[in-house]
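Next comes the chain:
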Amino acid sequence: MSEPLDPELLKILVCPESKAPLVQVEDWLYSTDPATRRRYPVRDGIPIMLIDESEVLSQEDFERVMSEHGTRGVSETAE
């Protein structure tokens, strides 16, 4: 498992597709956008922020990851 990314770096990184904030879970950065449900790998401490390198989660997996980490999808939190 990779070390956690610097919190300041994580604040400025966004999903390249949706521009949604990201949360780190182990060796992945998860987009908080329920419309895209993408996750990006972190390899050797380097976030790989390429859409071609990302994976799209099932709806169930996205909801599980977001709920386990106290994060709700961005469309659910926007007013």
The first helix runs from residue 7 to 12. The longest strand covers residues 38-43.
